[in-house]
């Protein structure tokens, strides 16, 4: 009797382990420094398309280009709303938090190498329903980002159709590794444009938007006093500018050693934060309340032309990144497990080129049809990117570690509360961002705030 009882107990205790192994084939593969190739989305391939060729050094350039675009010059106006000190704290705080939540996302993916994007990861948590809902959110967000970037590119080239052709040509490069060199040019060009504006505003006697003659009030506030709608909109703008975690995931999936991602993600977090903080403080210091809209005009007409001319490659590259990410998500969904997924067959090429054209065409339609695109993009940022960059990562932490965290040590309880706070902050930013955007739209149609199509173009890099 005792032997049979012991056998039953042993079987009961072993059952949960078997279920875990069945639901998640090889979670420890990344932790112990090895990658189980059969679990990865893309396999090592000698005779086909080898997607897994990205070394840890190259993501530094790729991730920098993902985050730094001409929209960095939208941050000074947000800082002007909040004031220098609160604005600086918000820039540093959001950059640190978004870098941390990005690491949560990538760790969750690396424990489940069969996940390609945040959509697959939510499929693990919520099943088919969660996967499809987040899939819709993912596609909408990136198509709108592509449309916004396309609008800015079309203004620079003075032709929307020419812009979409260039964007699709770039986004159709199949692997992130081969996109590195154009991205390097994009990073250099956008930093050149930013530098031109920073130097330009520092050399002027007065801001370009200030009165040409006589005394004027600069309006530089150490601590601002915005309304709730203005404050939450400025905060959301700064937050969304660093919420690139969902874009990082498909890049990490193409690394040779995904476990090395911190060697790129952490330095990029510091570099992007330093760029955002330096540019916004310098422009705000010299322009105060006279920050031009768009901010590229803060240094006067000549520097404005230079600042828009230098980053032309960056406009195409930034827009192509968004289109590439949306097309790659759909490509993996369509061909996962198929022999055509990594072979140079006509089916492979037709699917890849076709998806790039389809998503580019959707972005073309949005860019042509939406009259106040910056508000639509801001709304998409609040509804899509705030949850994907804050709420979702915290919920993933709870999925992996939250079950025993509250009943553990003091440190475990503190971590539990910290991630619960991230969920609340993300929810507040989502609701507040929607409210702030709706209020801005109302004021625009009431005639109390003028926003033209050109302003929309300056938001092309604000989301990511």
TrEMBL record:
It comes from the Eukaryota. It is a multi-pass membrane protein. Residues 53-434 form the Amino acid transporter transmembrane domain. The chain crosses the membrane at residues 119-144, 150-171, 183-203, 223-252, 264-286, 348-373, 379-402, 414-435. Residues 1-32 are annotated as: Disordered. Pfam families: Aa_trans (PF01490). It is found in: Membrane. Residues 20-32 have a biased composition (Polar residues). GO terms for cellular component: membrane. Its main location: membrane. GO terms for molecular function: L-amino acid transmembrane transporter activity. Keywords: Membrane, Transmembrane, Transmembrane helix. Belongs to the amino acid/polyamine transporter 2 family. PANTHER family: AMINO ACID TRANSPORTER, AMINO ACID TRANSPORTER (EUROFUNG). This is Amino acid transporter transmembrane domain-containing protein. It comes from Zasmidium cellare ATCC 36951.
């Amino acid at each position: 009797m005792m032997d049979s009882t012991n056998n039953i107990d042993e079987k009961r205790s072993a059952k949960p382990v078997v279920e875990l192994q069945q639901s998640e084939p090889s979670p420890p593969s990344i932790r112990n420094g090895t990658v189980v190739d059969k679990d990865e989305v893309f396999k090592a391939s000698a005779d086909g398309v080898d997607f897994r060729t990205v070394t840890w050094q190259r993501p530094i350039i790729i991730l920098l280009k993902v985050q730094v675009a001409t929209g960095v010059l939208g941050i000074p106006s947000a800082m002007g709303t909040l004031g220098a000190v609160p604005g600086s704290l918000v820039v540093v705080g959001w950059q640190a938090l978004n870098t941390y939540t990005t690491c949560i996302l990538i760790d969750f993916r690396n424990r489940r190498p069969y996940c390609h994007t945040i959509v697959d990861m939510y499929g693990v948590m919520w099943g088919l329903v969660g996967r499809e809902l987040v899939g819709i959110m993912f596609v909408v967000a990136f198509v709108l980002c592509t449309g916004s970037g396309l609008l800015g590119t079309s203004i620079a080239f003075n032709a929307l159709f020419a812009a979409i052709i260039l964007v699709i040509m770039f986004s159709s490069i199949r692997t992130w590794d081969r996109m590195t060199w154009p991205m390097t040019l994009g990073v250099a060009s956008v930093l050149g444009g930013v530098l031109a504006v920073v130097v330009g505003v520092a050399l002027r006697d007065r801001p370009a938007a200030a009165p040409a003659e006589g005394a004027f009030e600069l309006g530089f506030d150490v601590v601002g006093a915005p309304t709730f709608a203005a404050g939450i909109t400025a905060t959301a703008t700064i937050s969304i500018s660093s919420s690139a975690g969902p874009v990082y995931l498909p890049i990490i999936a193409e690394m040779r050693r995904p476990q090395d991602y911190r060697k790129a993600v952490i330095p990029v977090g510091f570099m992007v934060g330093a760029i955002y903080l330096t540019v916004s403080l310098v422009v705000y210091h010299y322009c105060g309340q006279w920050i031009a809209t768009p901010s590229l005009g803060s240094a006067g007409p000549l520097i404005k032309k230079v600042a828009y001319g230098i980053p032309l490659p960056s406009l195409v590259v930034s827009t192509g990144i968004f289109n590439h990410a949306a097309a790659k998500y759909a490509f993996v969904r369509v061909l996962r497990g198929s022999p055509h997924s990594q072979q140079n067959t006509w089916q492979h090429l037709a699917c890849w080129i076709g998806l790039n054209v389809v998503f580019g065409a959707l972005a073309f339609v949005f860019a042509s049809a939406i009259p106040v695109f910056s508000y639509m993009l801001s709304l998409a940022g609040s509804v899509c990117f705030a949850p994907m960059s804050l709420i979702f990562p915290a919920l993933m932490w709870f999925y992996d570690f939250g079950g025993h965290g509250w009943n553990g040590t003091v440190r475990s309880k503190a971590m539990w509360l910290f991630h619960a706070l991230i969920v609340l902050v993300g929810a507040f930013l989502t609701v507040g961002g929607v409210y702030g955007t709706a209020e801005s739209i109302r004021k625009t149609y009431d005639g109390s705030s003028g926003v033209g199509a050109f302003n929309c173009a300056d938001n092309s890099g604000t989301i990511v």
